Amino acid sequence: MLPQSVPASPNLSRRLAKLTSILDVAKAMSAERDLDLLLPLILYEATKVVESDRCSLFILDREREELWSKVAQGSKNEIRLPMGSGIAGQVAHTGAVINIPDAYADARFNSSFDISSGYRTHTILCVPMRDANGEVTGVIQALNKRGGQVFDEEDEELLLALGAQAAGAIENALLHEEINRLFEGFVSASVVAIEARDPSTAGHSGRVADLTVSLAQALEHRATGPYAQTRFTAVELQELRYASLLHDFGKVGVRENVLVKAEKLYPHELEALSARFQLARKDLQLQSSRRRLASVEVRGLSALPSIHQEEDARLGQELAQLDEVMGFLLTCNKPTVLAQGNFERLLELGKLTFTDAHDHGKPLLLPHEIQSLSITRGTLSPEERREIESHVDHTYRFLSQIPWTRALRRVPEIAYAHHEKLDGTGYPRAVPEIPVQSRMMSICDIYDALTASDRPYKKAVPHTLALDILKKEAGSGQLDKDLFTIFVEAEIPRRALKKSPA
Amino acid sequence: MLPQSVPASPNLSRRLAKLTSILDVAKAMSAERDLDLLLPLILYEATKVVESDRCSLFILDREREELWSKVAQGSKNEIRLPMGSGIAGQVAHTGAVINIPDAYADARFNSSFDISSGYRTHTILCVPMRDANGEVTGVIQALNKRGGQVFDEEDEELLLALGAQAAGAIENALLHEEINRLFEGFVSASVVAIEARDPSTAGHSGRVADLTVSLAQALEHRATGPYAQTRFTAVELQELRYASLLHDFGKVGVRENVLVKAEKLYPHELEALSARFQLARKDLQLQSSRRRLASVEVRGLSALPSIHQEEDARLGQELAQLDEVMGFLLTCNKPTVLAQGNFERLLELGKLTFTDAHDHGKPLLLPHEIQSLSITRGTLSPEERREIESHVDHTYRFLSQIPWTRALRRVPEIAYAHHEKLDGTGYPRAVPEIPVQSRMMSICDIYDALTASDRPYKKAVPHTLALDILKKEAGSGQLDKDLFTIFVEAEIPRRALKKSPA
């Protein structure tokens, strides 16, 4: 702490100016929440205020009883020192200023850094940084007062004052970093948890985020074309990243069986269909047996062998027909593209009936089964497709509930449009006005859906084929042609996913 | 901005002391991230530094072009002023200091506040607060210089310097508040999204959080007993809140059909069972028909009427038996407590067979059906119970992935133990050492599960009955008896949920 009353001296006005400048520095520091920028700022100002050659700053890690330094001017790696060791460690431990006028004459000085770096240390001023509770949170060390002088009491006072302000700014920056990491970690972990419901899409959202941000960054290098002026700030990239990471969050509102549907009928639907065919089979046997009895009544017992022969043949044929129909339905059930003839036959088969266990005539194939088996592409019925597509609405509703900061306020809107198409054929709103961020995300989303590992209803597609498919969609006016060109030219998949073109 | 060089003056050392004290204040302000504490601190220091009677502070809301004040000394409500209006509004608009030596002689002064409050304003100093980019972010206004003096240039300079530091601290506090709100909002929204998968538990997590935090706060008032010394800080309450809010997050890893299982067999399992009974029914008809034919062969056509009579009677009996078995199984399928006799009969029924559509002998009741229908309580098989219980492990794994801040680092551990019992009969670890936070959460979790709206497998229980059930569990050494006493005495449900004892 500085004394509240300072005696008048001829240097008073110089000190006043310096304290005033520390106030300006304090303000600049408190506005800088990025530690990687804050620490160099502190060192720059510290070097200036005590007129030294260079400064370094150590932050105290109380849990590990270590000092660490993210930035030491002229050094790039993180340094860690045990608390109490060396001059910085001692200052951190005792909280007392160390001012050394001649390093090589002082036993506390360790010349090994000089030896390894080729630097020559003459004078050292090392002061503690204290938080608002007076606890030491780190140290600032200034080396080599300019003009061959030694550090004086005024330097001590000024460096202490600067350090006190720096301590608060560092604490704020660390806290800011901590909360951001917490938020980011929570978002990522919940995306992973939700994706785990559909194992075939695991990791999709993270990859789409990497691809989309990478594509946005690639716009930086465009000097021509419609995106020559489009640039994203760091916080806009963050906004885009959250929108991409969370674009499928609404899938939590889609039932699992729909999400992972592998065939046109669900397993239990196929089981019910198959049980009905067994019942029909048994019914054919029963009808045949009843006919035999009735024939015997008419034609007499002596006709029994020929009745059996006739009925065995007829039953054999009927059962073979039933088996053939079942085989046909099993073929229709696969997620392949349905031939036109099959569709008509399914409608025809809808007229088949059998007699159930209570002797009621029943359709062999139910309308909803015909509808499901008639799906012309993929495995989803129109209702199921709508349910899957509803994930975009769920995502939007979810994201809209969240009190995004001003800088991130467009996250819901960007995610909302990721299935829209430029020709207005997308969903859920079918609007052609799509934010550029969503247009980028669309390309990356489709690319990853195509190339990611096999899904229950389709095989993974190789990189070049995926690009061909995207190219076709861009050509037909659904995807943004210029963004797709950048996606290809900047080799976004290789850059973002380390995916080798295959 | 202050000039970098200040001319020497007789007041120099006093100004130096004041600037030094502003540095100390700057440090204290930067450490205060709670806006409700920061604003009074700024006002206190501002009042002191310019030796005024009182100060007020307005923050600029650029979007709404308004100034707002959370604290005006002597006033409790939030005040909002249009930008440009009044003295504060003008300073915010122009960025220029306004220093009024005689308020009532100045046209800009609005005496309505004086009139309504009975206060008498003489002198006014109003200065802008600027952020690190020089943008005005608010104003500080000092009223009535002490000793009947007027505010001078030095006051302007000092209040500007203080305001500059205050601007940074306020910005940090607002940002801190913003990110916390974002995190909190994201957590709440994802809990809601995950709970929506099981509509019968909607809102459960939020209520458990409210109950548990309320119970923790109630410990404050205990002067005796084992919890007389237990107190939770604000950040510990926050930790407890997150743990409670997220205790069931792992349910995202449990399949929906298990989560919402209403009977012992799933609908599709019951459908398959029922289809098998229809097949068996048809088979009985077929066997009967075949026997008729065989009897005719032996006894001759003339015996046919009596054969039909005998067989109709036999078939009728067989079908009635089959129907009775099916009726029994439907009874077993309900989520009621199973009588001992039923269990033995189910095992017996496992021996029944029928001939399937391909003339193979098949069991009428499958082992997994017998197992499910034999569930003695509720609707879940042991495997399903384990799957439901696994939500605690999922929750723990999920929470452990998140980089909690140091202050919140016990969230995973607290949530992990919410199904443990003090007698070691809980899950997943079956350990009797349970953090007090988890012990509180257990009581609140069970209370809400009992009293919340009907679930598919059980009816909601009234408040007093729920307390009786909890009391029994406390008495048997599963729940913490003392915490339960506080839960009852402090009327936690009424306090936290506005639930009236019924």
From TrEMBL, chains A, B:
Cite the HD-GYP domain residue spans from the record: 293-502
Checking CDD domains in the record gives: HDc
Q: Record's SMART domains?
A: GAF (SM00065), HDc (SM00471)
What PROSITE patterns is this protein classified in? HD_GYP
What's the protein name?
A: GAF domain-containing protein
Organism of derivation:
Corallococcus exiguus
